[in-house]
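Hi support team,

I've been running sequence recovery on a batch of backbones for a student project. Most finish fine, but this one hangs at about 90% for roughly twenty minutes before it completes. I'm not sure whether the input is malformed or the queue is just slow. I've pasted the structure tokens below so you can try to reproduce it. Let me know if you need the job ID as well.

Thanks,
M.K.
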């Protein structure tokens, strides 16, 4: 059966105060709430990557006090659980995580829903992060970025697939308040490197709970898709 689990946790707390799931206690609930989400993955230089999640059928208390969820940590897991012949529970896992940027309730006829706007970054202009790019002369960009992100996000792994030609001959130092500012800075600096006629600079995104940095020189291995993965998939 299709599976989802959504949690909201106050900043600094270890236990969520709200959990909505299709499998409470590990058992499928045919009365589980309907959810909708639109989560796009793209580099931070292009967009701040805000995404939306809608939960239908919430309680009146949550609907009328939706603003209480603003600033809380959001996590959503999904996939499949046992129950259908082709279901593979091993494919269930974390889909997205972030901070609730905005929360509001809607009541239309018999439809009571909670709408959440989620930001994948915990840092904003009003709550700036310690994002200092200290790209020293002779240092590769991937090493400089790993040092920068390990300070602001010590718990998130880092993977870089960029050309080794990105080495400065002078110190490049920038302070940024948000991830979007950092990525726009990196994009602007690296676009000036003539790595190739179609080189467009370095991109950075956060996916599957880790930072991923790449450029046009990165050629990932082909992924073999299973026919079963196309059966019953949402569009």
């Amino acid at each position: 059966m299709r599976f989802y689990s959504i949690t909201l946790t106050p900043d600094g707390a270890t236990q969520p105060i709200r959990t909505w799931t299709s499998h409470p206690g590990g058992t499928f609930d045919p009365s589980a709430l309907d959810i909708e989400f639109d989560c796009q993955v793209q580099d931070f230089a292009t967009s701040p990557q805000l995404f939306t999640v809608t939960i239908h059928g919430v309680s009146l208390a949550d609907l009328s006090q939706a603003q209480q969820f603003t600033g809380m940590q959001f996590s959503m897991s999904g996939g499949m659980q046992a129950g259908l012949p082709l279901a593979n529970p091993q494919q269930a896992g974390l889909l997205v995580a972030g901070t609730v940027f905005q929360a509001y309730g809607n009541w239309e006829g018999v439809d009571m829903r909670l709408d959440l706007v989620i930001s994948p970054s915990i840092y904003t202009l009003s709550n700036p992060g310690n994002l200092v790019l200290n790209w020293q002369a002779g240092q590769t960009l991937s090493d400089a970025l790993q040092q920068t992100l390990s300070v602001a996000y010590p718990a998130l792994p880092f993977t870089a697939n960029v050309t080794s030609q990105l080495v400065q001959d002078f110190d490049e130092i920038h302070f940024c308040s948000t991830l979007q500012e950092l990525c726009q800075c990196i994009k602007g600096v690296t676009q000036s490197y003539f790595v190739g006629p179609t080189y467009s600079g370095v991109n950075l995104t956060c996916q599957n709970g880790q930072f991923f940095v790449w450029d046009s020189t990165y050629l990932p291995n082909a992924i073999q898709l299973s026919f079963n993965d196309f059966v019953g998939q949402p569009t």
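--
Follow-up from support: It reproduced on our side and the slowdown came from queue contention, not your input. The first strand starts at residue 2 and ends at 9. No action needed from you.
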